[in-house]
TrEMBL record:
Family (UniProt): Belongs to the major facilitator superfamily. Folate-biopterin transporter (TC 2.A.71) family.
Keyword Transport: yes
TM region positions: 79-99, 105-124, 131-149, 169-194, 201-221, 241-258, 270-292, 312-335
Entry keyword Transferase: no
UniProt name for this protein: Putative folate/pteridine transporter
Domain of life, per lineage: Eukaryota
Subcellular location, record wording: Membrane
InterPro entries named among the record's database cross-references: BT1, FBT, MFS_trans_sf
Chain intervals with Basic and acidic residues compositional bias: 9-22, 355-366
Residue ranges of the region described as Disordered: 1-23, 355-377
One Pfam family hit: BT1
Length: 377
C-alpha cells in the first residue's frame, strides 16, 4: 500500500510546486507591469509638464477675436491658402452680384468656380478633393430658380387667373412647418435605413427621388392636377415633404463623409472649408438660375406689362430634372466605395478590424483582444 501511494504523493508535490512557481511568476509580472505603468505615468506627467512650460501662448489678432496657431498654419499652408481663396471668391461673387451687370456675373461665376475646384486638388489630399468637388457639383447642379416659382405660386388672379394663388401664410408658414417635419422624417430614415448602406447607393437614391419630387412642381405649373386634386395637396406632398426628406438623406451622409475625411490636426479648419464649399455651391446654383432666367427663359411677373410664366416649365425641366442627373455618374468617380458606418483612411480605403485566424478566434480571450488591430482593405 505505501509503495502504491508514493508515486501519487510525489506527483501532487510536483503539481503544487509548479502552481506556486506559476503564481510567483504571475505576481512578479503584475508587479512589473504596475511599476512600468507608474513609471510611464510619471514620465508622461513630466513630459506634459515640460510641454506646458515650453508651449508659448498663441498670438491673437483683432484684439483677441481669434487666435493663430503659426505651427499649424506653417504645416498646412496649402489649406490656409485654399481657405483664403474660397473666402475671396465668395466676396468677389457678392460684389459682382450687387454692382456688376449680367455679363460680369457670368464671367465671375465661371472663373471663381473653376479656380476653387482646381485649386482644391492642389491643397487637399486626393480623396478629400474628390469629395469636396462632388459636394460642390451636387449643390450647384440642382439649379435654384430665384423668383420664378415663388412668383408663380403666389401670383394674384389679375396676373395669373388659373394659378395656385397660395397665400403668404400657407406658403411661408404652413409649408415651412410641414417641410421641417419632412426633414425630421429624413433624419429618421437615414438613422434606421441608410446608416449602414454605401455612400454611392445613398447618393444615387436620393438624387433620383429628388428628381421625382420635382415632377410635382411641373404638375402644378402645367395644371395637370386640376380640377381633381388641390394645388395645396400636390405642393405639400411634392416639394415640401418629398424634397425635404431627400435633402436630409443627401445632406447627412455628405456631412459624415466629410467629417471622416478631415486630416488629423486640421479637423476644424478642413471641415469648415468643406461645409463652406457646399454653401458656395448653392450660391453658384442661384447664380446659374438667374442667368438662365435672364438669357434663355425669362419670366415676367409685372401685371402692368403682362405676366408670362410659360417658361417656368422649361426652367423646371432643365434645372430640377435634367441637371441633377449629371451627379449620378460622378458618384462612382468621386465618392469612395465604402459604407456610411465604415472608417476611412486618408486614401479613401476602408479600415476594418483584423479577425484572428482559426483557433485563436476565442471570444473574450487576450489573443482575440490583442488581434483587433486595424488593417486596410
Amino acid at each position: 500500500m505505501p509503495n502504491s501511494c508514493a508515486p501519487k504523493l510525489l506527483e501532487e508535490r510536483r503539481d503544487s510546486s509548479k502552481r506556486l512557481r506559476e503564481d510567483d511568476d504571475t505576481a512578479v509580472a503584475e508587479m512589473g507591469n504596475h511599476s512600468m505603468l507608474v513609471l510611464s505615468d510619471e514620465v508622461c506627467a513630466g513630459v506634459s509638464g515640460e510641454e506646458e512650460d515650453e508651449v508659448p501662448p498663441l498670438p491673437t489678432c483683432c484684439c483677441g477675436v481669434f487666435e493663430v496657431n503659426k505651427e499649424v498654419a506653417r504645416r498646412s499652408w496649402r489649406i490656409v491658402l485654399y481657405c483664403l481663396l474660397v473666402a475671396a471668391g465668395s466676396v468677389v461673387m457678392a460684389i459682382v452680384t450687387v454692382l456688376g451687370d449680367i455679363w460680369s456675373l457670368l464671367y465671375a461665376c465661371i472663373a471663381v468656380s473653376v479656380a476653387v475646384c482646381v485649386f482644391g486638388f492642389f491643397a487637399l489630399p486626393l480623396v478629400i478633393a474628390k469629395a469636396n468637388l462632388y459636394t460642390f457639383l451636387s449643390m450647384a447642379s440642382y439649379i435654384q430658380l430665384p423668383g420664378a416659382l415663388d412668383s408663380f405660386y403666389m401670383a394674384r388672379p389679375d396676373c395669373l387667373p388659373d394659378g395656385p394663388h397660395f397665400s403668404f401664410f400657407f406658403y411661408n408658414t404652413v409649408a415651412s412647418i410641414i417641410g421641417n417635419i419632412g426633414g425630421i422624417v429624413g433624419i429618421l430614415l437615414f438613422r434606421y435605413v441608410f446608416s449602414k448602406k454605401s455612400y454611392r447607393i445613398t447618393f444615387v437614391f436620393t438624387t433620383l427621388v429628388m428628381v421625382v419630387a420635382s415632377i410635382f412642381d411641373l404638375i402644378i405649373v402645367e395644371r395637370w392636377n386640376r380640377p381633381r386634386v388641390s394645388d395645396h395637396v400636390v405642393y405639400v406632398l411634392g416639394d415640401q415633404v418629398v424634397y425635404q426628406v431627400c435633402y436630409m438623406l443627401h445632406f447627412m451622409p455628405g456631412i459624415i463623409l466629410l467629417s471622416r475625411l478631415c486630416p488629423r490636426g486640421t479637423e476644424s479648419m478642413v471641415y469648415a472649408l468643406l461645409a463652406g464649399f457646399a454653401n458656395f455651391g448653392q450660391a453658384v446654383s442661384n447664380t446659374v438660375g438667374s442667368l438662365l432666367m435672364e438669357f434663355k427663359w425669362p419670366v415676367e411677373t409685372d401685371p402692368a406689362v403682362g405676366c408670362d410664366f410659360s417658361n417656368v416649365k422649361w426652367l423646371l425641366i432643365v434645372g430640377h430634372l435634367l441637371c441633377p442627373l449629371v451627379c449620378i455618374p460622378l458618384v462612382f468617380l468621386l465618392i469612395p466605395a465604402a459604407r456610411i458606418c465604415d472608417n476611412i483612411d486618408v486614401d479613401g480605403r476602408v479600415v476594418r478590424p483584423q479577425e484572428p485566424p482559426g483557433d485563436c478566434k476565442v471570444e473574450g480571450s487576450r489573443e482575440s483582444l490583442s488581434a483587433q488591430e486595424p488593417v486596410l482593405k
